[in-house]
Amino acid sequence: MARFLIEVPHEAKTRECALAAKVLLSTGSHYLTHADFGCLDGEHKAWIIIEVDNKKEAQFLVPAAFRHLAKVVQLNKFSLAELEEILKHHEE
User: Fold this and answer.
1) 81 pLDDT band (50/70/90 cuts)?
2) Percent of the chain beyond pLDDT 70?
3) Which residues form the domain of 27?
4) How many domains are contained in the chain?
5) Measured between alpha carbons, how far is 39 from 62 in angstroms, rounded to an integer?
6) Which of 45, 41, 57, 65 is nearest to 4 (CA)?
7) Which residues pair with 50 in a beta bridge?
8) Residue 38 maps to which CATH number?
9) pTM value?
10) Mean pLDDT of 50-59
11) Which of 24, 59, 77, 81 is the most buried (most CB within 10 A)?
12) How far apart are CA 86 and CA 36, in angstroms?
């Protein structure tokens, strides 16, 4: 399975923050009920990390009201060996 970071923005108003949180929590989805929010620090977004088969599946998990605003990014990690190999083939 692949890992994805989903970023869901919402308006910078107290009511909008509460509504966004309520929508995510009301889904009952384990992923969405564990979203992290940046609202109290002035960053009006929710972040969710999920493991699913593909990007479309990740997008589909976002409630329809926020789907068009959401940004979905596939996450990956590199080993030092992989980075050395990349750098070896892409020297300037």
Assistant:
1) very high
2) 99
3) 2-89
4) 1
5) 19
6) 57
7) 4
8) 3.30.70
9) 0.86
10) 96
11) 24
12) 33
